[in-house]
Design goal:
By secondary structure, this protein is mainly α. The protein has 2 domains: 1-82, no CATH class; 87-144. The chain has helices at residues 2-16, 20-45, 49-79, 90-112, 119-143.
Length: 144
């Protein structure tokens, strides 16, 4: 099913002349995160903010470690005994910098606020995401 979703997304990109990178970081990322958003908001409103906050970090961490780890193991096994060469792209560096900024910022702000999450930090994180999306779209549109 994921393969068909990607094929449909690629077809839409070709028809509308959008870069696959732009579609991936917007439409696919948002679609992948809507379920988590609904679940986390429902948990927070039900009086379980600790579980909601843990879910905000645990879900993406699981996706990165298990999803990316499995894909890399399969690809590495496919090219064995040669090394798998990962192509460098500036978008990967930008994504890593923004991820590091948001995670380290969250660690510092939440620790500084005695393990409470201030409202302003939620707005800051949304701003970081908007800035990341704008920078990533600018990079994707100039490189492809």
């Amino acid at each position: 099913m994921a393969g068909e979703l990607l094929n449909c997304l690629a077809a839409i990109g070709i028809i509308m002349d959008f870069s696959p990178a732009i579609l991936g970081m917007t439409v696919l990322a948002w679609g992948n995160s809507v379920g988590d958003l609904v679940a986390d908001v429902a948990l927070a409103r039900a009086g379980q903010p600790t579980i909601a906050i843990a879910g905000c970090f645990a879900g993406p961490m699981f996706n990165m470690l298990v999803g990316l780890g499995t894909a890399l193991v399969v690809q590495t096994a496919r090219v064995y005994p040669k090394a798998f060469v990962l192509e460098f792209h500036v978008g990967i560096v930008v994504a890593f910098v923004f991820l590091l900024l948001s995670l380290m910022g969250t660690l510092l702000v939440v620790t500084w606020a005695r393990f409470r999450v201030p409202r302003f930090w939620g707005y800051c994180l949304m701003g970081i995401y908007v800035l990341f999306t704008v920078v990533s779209i600018a990079i994707a549109s100039t490189s492809g």
